[in-house]
Amino acid sequence: MAGNTFGQLFRVTTWGESHGPALGAVIDGCPPRLPLAAADIETELARRRPGVQAHATSRREPDKVEILSGVFEGLTTGTPISLIIYNRDVKSQDYDELRNVFRPGHGDFTYQAKYGIRDHRGGGRASARETAARVAAGAVAQKVLDADGIKVLAYTLELGGVRATRVDEDRIWDNPYACPDPEVVSAMEARVQEVRAQGDSLGGAVQIRVTGCPPGLGEPVFDKLDAVLAHAVMSVGAVKGVEIGAGFAAARLLGSENNDPLVPGGFAANRAGGILAGLSNGDAIIISAAVKPIPSIPQEQQTIDQEGQPRTLKVKGRHDISAIPRIVPVIGAMVRLTLADFLLRQRAIG
Amino acid sequence: MAGNTFGQLFRVTTWGESHGPALGAVIDGCPPRLPLAAADIETELARRRPGVQAHATSRREPDKVEILSGVFEGLTTGTPISLIIYNRDVKSQDYDELRNVFRPGHGDFTYQAKYGIRDHRGGGRASARETAARVAAGAVAQKVLDADGIKVLAYTLELGGVRATRVDEDRIWDNPYACPDPEVVSAMEARVQEVRAQGDSLGGAVQIRVTGCPPGLGEPVFDKLDAVLAHAVMSVGAVKGVEIGAGFAAARLLGSENNDPLVPGGFAANRAGGILAGLSNGDAIIISAAVKPIPSIPQEQQTIDQEGQPRTLKVKGRHDISAIPRIVPVIGAMVRLTLADFLLRQRAIG
Amino acid sequence: MAGNTFGQLFRVTTWGESHGPALGAVIDGCPPRLPLAAADIETELARRRPGVQAHATSRREPDKVEILSGVFEGLTTGTPISLIIYNRDVKSQDYDELRNVFRPGHGDFTYQAKYGIRDHRGGGRASARETAARVAAGAVAQKVLDADGIKVLAYTLELGGVRATRVDEDRIWDNPYACPDPEVVSAMEARVQEVRAQGDSLGGAVQIRVTGCPPGLGEPVFDKLDAVLAHAVMSVGAVKGVEIGAGFAAARLLGSENNDPLVPGGFAANRAGGILAGLSNGDAIIISAAVKPIPSIPQEQQTIDQEGQPRTLKVKGRHDISAIPRIVPVIGAMVRLTLADFLLRQRAIG
Amino acid sequence: MAGNTFGQLFRVTTWGESHGPALGAVIDGCPPRLPLAAADIETELARRRPGVQAHATSRREPDKVEILSGVFEGLTTGTPISLIIYNRDVKSQDYDELRNVFRPGHGDFTYQAKYGIRDHRGGGRASARETAARVAAGAVAQKVLDADGIKVLAYTLELGGVRATRVDEDRIWDNPYACPDPEVVSAMEARVQEVRAQGDSLGGAVQIRVTGCPPGLGEPVFDKLDAVLAHAVMSVGAVKGVEIGAGFAAARLLGSENNDPLVPGGFAANRAGGILAGLSNGDAIIISAAVKPIPSIPQEQQTIDQEGQPRTLKVKGRHDISAIPRIVPVIGAMVRLTLADFLLRQRAIG
Predict the structure, then answer these.
(1) Which chain D residues are Cβ-neighbours of A78 within 8 angstroms?
(2) ipTM of the complex
(3) A26 interfaces chain C, CB cutoff of 8 Å
(4) Residues 6+ apart with CB under 8 A from D25
(5) Any idea what the Cα angle at residue D251 is, between residues D250 and D253, rounded to 5°?
(6) Per-residue pLDDT at A63 exceeds 60
(7) What is the rounded CA–CA span in Å between residue C324 and residue C311?
(8) In angstroms, what CA-CA distances link B25 with A73, A279, B14, B275, D210?
(9) How many CB atoms sit inside 10 A of residue A94's CB?
(10) Which residues in chain D touch residue A79, judged by CB atoms under 8 angstroms apart?
(11) Contact criterion met (CB < 8 Å) for B9 and D32
(12) What's the burial of B54, exposed, middle or buried (CB within 10 Å: 0-12/13-18/19+)?
């Protein structure tokens, strides 16, 4: 089956192209009687809105969401929740040049290979614009998590090689990089300025910290909690790596160093990242994701056209120089969707 | 739904506990008229057999597989292929001590939290024994890949901090570590000896290299090829991190460094790891996985019992000191299952 | 999972309430490069539009569909096709009386039991209005069938006890009952008039005839073609019975009477209704469905309110006196969706 | 995907051919801590065993089931339950003649068309033998229903035109036809004798009555309870029609006759068959199924061979002359599987 649906019980299907009339999500399986209003969703959408930050794309997307179904008198009804976000401020003519040429680092070539046709305008379905629907759906998922007291914190761990070394929850959104460490914000800023001046782009890393998750979430064997979280997070466009807890560092630890001792009421350490044998263990769930640099850069690059002939291309249009921080709420949304789904899956056998 | 099934069209369901009478897999959706014999499967199973390597568990599992259905006169029929592997040489009494106590780093605590009951013998369903069924199913998946000329190479990238720096395909299985770099085998050996002497265990990293994969495999948005590969690989017990191509290193590259230029006939570099926008691009697919050290160590560890009281535990029984190399064919199998599924998914719209 | 999605590979998710702002469908998995325009869909939607026939509800629904995604320059792209139909001419105040009382024969009581909340206006999600999205999606499915030359004919077999005895394809839509037998139209008309005068409603039966279906469609065991067709057809609100081929009459035949002899090029009879062992046999597929009378009648009926107290109720508002003929294209759409899905499923292993 | 799995949360996958070494079922998603023993399953299997009744096939199948996983110390653990039933008393040489010729009324022709290969021995996967796995799985499903006090009664409604007119629960299994009406048993017997003497076979009808089902089970729109029940029941080999409640009779009722009035505590009638708008209403669920006559008859029939040439065929081997009563527990099992699945689905949102 095609891959535009996520989740087994709390199921989200998204649709829409960057330069089509609208994009949206349909959520099926949301439990009834949860309070839900468009404003709940727009708070989260605002965090992925471009143009807020100095270094971000100049496209303006107001990202007003409309709830078209599934809510009655302020409460979910258990029927599908249809969310729609209209596309505005679309300048498709910026993309005319891309009709027959493939941008390096983008899906142009692979979509053409897969389907034999593609909507080249703004990346079509492969645009980062698509993630607005994920963020909207994630805000609904959070309503399910709220009922169980589960909190999902998302922030920038690293940008352009500058790494946060502590997490101050209250400071994440008071800077333009979703950086939780106030002491490195100016270093991030300096790095961004430097790279913008070079006409280049930056990668980084995002971290998610989930607290309040009860033990036992996840499904053994193939649908381990960490496996589905990796699926969820890696499904976000620019992500090239996912770690749970100690991640790749665990590869170099000894068993005696890596095992988290159990103590009454919990664990004495959390190298496991809150997951054991694919099930949550009640401790904080820690996920890190590597984010590649934005491939659209105002430099001439070597590529080919649809006939396979060599071409050079300087990508025009309005582009961020890093997927960070806009990708931060997107990854957070994917974690929310995953956890809401596993909560419902657990209820079924509980 | 419970998580013992993997794949949408080429679908594998596994079952079985470490100390039950048998374990197995049912494969539904395998195309008809492919040649298949038990011997095809046993070759791959032999690579995850314990006891072959000096450092491995002393449990002997002959791992003879029986094909109970879905094959007629040497060819698949399109109906479910049921594979069974009987458990032999099981010493359940070794585990009596674990009935009421949770081993650190294992699923004992989380299974109990999830189900309120667990088969404590040998880890039950959470045992690495379960992966025999994955390997068996992966060998069937390879039959689907064979028809398209897709080859999946799996090997040890790193063990106990010793890293392979080149890949010699023909040397991988001529040493006890599935190490593709003959020059570091003795260093791995030395590290293993050293850690065994300490009564400890080791982690490492596994890499997969897929060649011959046509462009366009994968499904946009949630079921991106890299997302499902991450799901597949992270679903293997000890894996704590997954990277595609440059992985976490991409976080520190500039866009101009990270973009792979397109040239007539392919790409001039492969930092993407063969996947663009979630679809294969025709280049080699490169996946790396972090493997944590085996949690069962012959040292006294701090833990709790089922009543939550503090206990100390020295894990007895027969245990490897690293999941490597036995995990290598398991991760390879998961990649094979993923690719076979996407091949069929692509045919449906092709 | 919640039940608003149909199909495995050609997957339709519908959403929307009778008195919400809109309703719609998202189709995921539609093959690329098929021609598709809103007009293709509206032709089919027009057949379920109320108010065309003398005996039908007086609510006017223009049922203009908008294609919001998945089509580029007149061709499907392989990405999700989002269809939206706005609700207009909604008179929700007609339903104020139903906020706390359950209409007999409707889902009011069962939705309340399931969800503990319901949108009472016009039946909410349980309204026949929901079927507009099915018909729209079915028109897209027909594009997939067109490529294989598969034709789906839907018509009224019986209305109020008056039964068609022959099928003239060209006459089905030249009368207000989708009756394929011109000779019984006036008898149907007389029966409708009579029952309207009584303030009552009528049931009937619908038949579907599929031609051009290749042999081998369907999946053995649980997803037999007839099983999924029964699922599809029975999922339409008023349907209370489904037959394939001879159906219940087969229960009284002998084996020698019921077996269809094979002859070179096909079958000498078609009591099987074109399906053998759950797979299409290349002959015409014949499905019949029993349709119950519309439960909303302008007579006083015995019921209870939300507190369980006895009440009487005379249902007001605009109602058809039979689900026929508006249900005819809905059942046809469900058959189209089923066949398109099985076509893609067959391609995956073909 | 291939169709050998049924259910969303309580998921059963069956495998096995009539003349292979064994057949079985894997149940994933069964809640933990339910008591389960092989004997619970064999009681139900005994009811579909051939050779008990005078008119049934002379093949002897002891149908001993082994539970290979998912049960620990007499309780389910939440992990997959693997059930295996070995095939014994197999006489494959009886089927040599059928290697290249298609039996009328069987799946021989359609399996060949679908897969281009088939196991011709005893019908392979299309054999009624496959239903043993369904019955075994259904017995496990009943354990889930037991916890909620749901009872599924299955019986013969009609055999060879002789119809039961009352249901005495205690008498169903005291006669060889699963007939709940002691007064018509001898008429059924006479009809069976008569048809056996003719060398022919008989059809009939089976009815299911579910009591104790809470209101609200089922999922709106496509996965209505009646839709999935129709799917489940129609997936049983010989079934050609399914009715819910009044079924086809509802097509000739008026709305005022067909509506079941609500009264405090329930409904004053049950023409709906316990289902309203696709959700259970708390009343008894009534399902009827038409069963076609067994196609294997000892008469010469017209057919073709694999090259499409005309042939005549007299089917040899051991065959029942009616699928009744052996099909009765099979249909009951499918209803049990459906209800267990919907119970778990409801818990997820409850």
Answers:
(1) 349
(2) 0.96
(3) yes
(4) D12, D13, D14, D15, D82, D83, D133, D134, D136, D137
(5) 60
(6) yes
(7) 30
(8) 48, 22, 4, 29, 34
(9) 16
(10) 220
(11) no
(12) exposed
Q: Is the dihedral of CA D159, D161, D162, D163 positive or negative?
A: positive
| Residue reference for tokens 């949301």 | A30
> Which residues of chain D are within 8 Å of residue A349 when distances are taken between CB atoms?
9, 29, 31-32, 78, 344, 347
Name subunits touching A (3+ CB pairs < 8 A): B, C, D
Structure token pair of residue A327: 């990708």
Burial status of residue D166 (CB atoms within 10 A of its CB: 0-12, 13-18, 19 or more): exposed
Please list the alpha-helical segments (H only) found in C147-212.
Answer: 185-198
Residue bearing tokens 């049912």: B26
Binary contact (B28, D13; C-beta < 8 A): yes
Rg of chain B on CA atoms, in Å: 21
d(CA B96, CA D190): 62
User: Which two tokens mark C277?
Assistant: 């062992």
Lowest mean pLDDT among A236-250, B217-231, C279-293, D38-52: D38-52
Contact criterion met (CB < 8 Å) for D349 and A79: no
Residue D276, classed as helix, strand or coil, is strand
Residue D285: name the closest of D350, D334, D340, D339 by CA: D339
- The CA distance from C23 to A19, in Å, is 22
**Cα gap B303→B103, rounded to integer Å:** 7
CA B179 to chain CA centroid, Å, is 16
pLDDT in tens, A321-346: 999 999 999 999 999 999 999 999 99
Chain B positions touching C9 (Cβ under 8 A) are: 9, 345, 348-349
Please report residues of B whose CB lies closer than 8 A to that of D134. none
Our CA-based measurement puts residue B29 at a distance from the nearest CA of chain C, in whole angstroms, of: 8
Q: Which residue does chain B place closest to A283, by CA atoms? A: B110
User: D15 vs chain A: nearest CA distance in angstroms?
Assistant: 21
Sign of the alpha-carbon dihedral angle for D342, D343, D347, D350: positive
C56 pLDDT exceeds 60?
no
Which pLDDT belongs to residue A54?
A: 46
pTM: 0.97
CA distances from A269 to A212, A257, B300 (A): 16, 10, 17
Residue of A162, A221, A294 to mutate, interface with B, max B Cβ within 10 Å: A221
Domains and CATH numbers, chain A: 5-348 (3.60.150.10)
Cα distance between residue C99 and residue B143, in whole Å: 60
- Give residues 115 to 144 of B whose Cβ lies within 8 Å of D: 115-119, 124-125
Best residue in B111, B115, B342 to probe D by mutation, most D CBs within 10 Å?
B115
Q: Do B1 and D69 touch (CB under 8 A)?
A: no
Q: Binning pLDDT at 50, 70 and 90, where does residue D54 land?
A: very low
B220 touches chain C (CB under 8 A): yes
B291, B205 contact by CB (below 8 A): yes
Q: What is the pLDDT of residue B51?
A: 53
Q: What is the pLDDT of residues B145-193, one digit of tens each?
A: 999 999 999 999 999 999 999 999 999 999 999 999 999 999 999 999 9
Contact A131, A330 (CB under 8 A): yes
CA distance, residue D107 to nearest chain B CA (Å) = 13
Query: Is the CB of residue B290 less than 8 Å from the CB of residue B240?
Result: yes
Contacts of D174 (CB under 8 A, 6+ apart): none
Lowest mean pLDDT among A120-124, A341-345, B240-244, C210-214: A120-124
Question: To the nearest whole angstrom, how far is the Cα of C73 from the nearest Cα of chain D?
Answer: 31
Residue C280 in contact with partner chain D when CB distance is under 8 A? yes
Query: Of A47-56, B276-285, D66-75, which range is least confident?
Result: A47-56
Residue D205 identity (one-letter amino acid): A
How many angstroms separate the CA atoms of D344 and D78, rounded?
13
